[in-house]
Design a protein that fits this description.
The protein is built from 3 helices and no strands.
Amino acid sequence: MFPLTMERTSQLAMLQELVSLGHGVSLIPQMAALIDRSPERVYRSLAGVRPKRSVVLVTNPYRYASRLQNSFFEAMRVDGRN
């Protein structure tokens, strides 16, 4: 049987609530599962090779970057001008 509807959201809390309401299943980052204390949801880990995600930092080289921003760029190993 195929799903009758498909719902999309970028908010983890909304995904978790949709699952609680019986709207299906979802894949979410482990960090969200670890802090969820709701008895309405059950979390399971994937077997085998787990998916990975990359996080990137994007900046506009033509905009002024404050000292705080430059420190953040350095902490992220990014040159604020490139």
